[in-house]
């Protein structure tokens, strides 16, 4: 018996040593490359400070970025996987634009590792997760839905959500309540209502009916803070092929079915009754008929402000792929995620900055009131909103300092010979990821002097020409940039317009100044929330 136990102990010890040796060898990758590398910790890679909650995600990215300030490109380990971090904005432009054919896809961390995914994979079929030719075809399919002309059609729906929110808040004030609100929660509710009307074709009111089914199912759908989901996400990043074989999915199946049924039933009702509504459901129905096309001359207008990204040749290309219903329905999910998280994050930090910078808030309020005066009682329009220069400066600066997409990524889809004009030259192998540290670049004094200062004047007519466009990437870079930049900017500007017209944003005792970020999670969030008071200007 003793011999058996001894043999078992030796076998287990040998197995552990073998696994340790195999994993340790992964940390030799950058020893063969002429690039500096952040020191890894076994299993945790270069992210130990973040994963052990000693640093927030933004500080982690900025610390990595600052480790080798003279390097154009550096290495680090995401758990056990080697990743290149691009530090030089011209290299970023080269890889994401000129050499895009080598870096066409995102790292497959949320879905499987193959280009063709099953039609039932809602997240896997979303535009963000698609790869290869299927992504190209979907991008060109959806691109006409996000031009300036289509935003004009959707603007009324977005404005209606903002005005409804203001009416509710005013009614709360008249009832004697003080509007001390947590911004992330407040704007998640607004974002939920906007996406419900724009992407799902239904009206909900998450301010008045706080536990409505659509909102609660949405929280269920994207509850990525649960430990089980975080562990699953980390495993998908570390072992995407294995997790694909196991059928792992971050999306809650019950909530996914609910939203799928909502879209399908909405489309059926419109077919039966001939209903036309200017929203994403209508766009998808147009896609089914092959009727969604670009309008001549509309692609090149930077009509939504400085942060707008332009569509590349990929979005202008025509194709003959016929989409299945579930593949089209899946596109609504990525915009749901964007509304629930990205939009609400952008508005949270923007209102925080306005609250602690009252002189900037006052100037923006004056522009809003001047616009109101010029409207002479008529409703706000998309065209009028885009002419508000200071509004665009404020939003652009907020996206500079607090980009909701704190980091972008690409995966090398075919071996790439890296050259940066110096003696440095090496191969980035197929399957290797590269990261673009957006929040670090946006807060680098080389590109933005005194980066911690919230200063909309950076984007004035006199100053914005000084900004290197390759160093301002709140919506990503190259053909794989965010297709919905116009929609996001329209949503942000319209709700700020509605709110600031009737309220001032004021700090309270709960407001954390300076703001610190939470040590948990992979997105920008206040450590103790972001609390502000919406103080009515007049009743």
Notable features of this structure?
539 residues; 4-stranded mixed sheet; 3-stranded antiparallel sheet; 9 strands
Tell me the major beta sheet: 4 strands, mixed
Oligomer: single chain
Please tell me what the overall shape is. Answer: globular
Strand order of the largest sheet: 1-2-7-4
Tally the beta strands.
Answer: 9
Helix content: 40-55%
Total number of helices: 19
Uncertain spans: 110-114
Brief digest:
The chain has 539 residues and is of the alpha+beta class.
Describe the fold and architecture.
- 48% of the residues lie in helices and 8% in strands.
- Helix 7 (183-199) runs antiparallel to helix 14.
- With 539 residues, the protein is α+β, with helices and mostly antiparallel strands.
- Strands 1-2-7-4 form a four-stranded mixed sheet. A three-stranded antiparallel sheet has the order 3-9-8. A two-stranded antiparallel ribbon has the order 5-6.
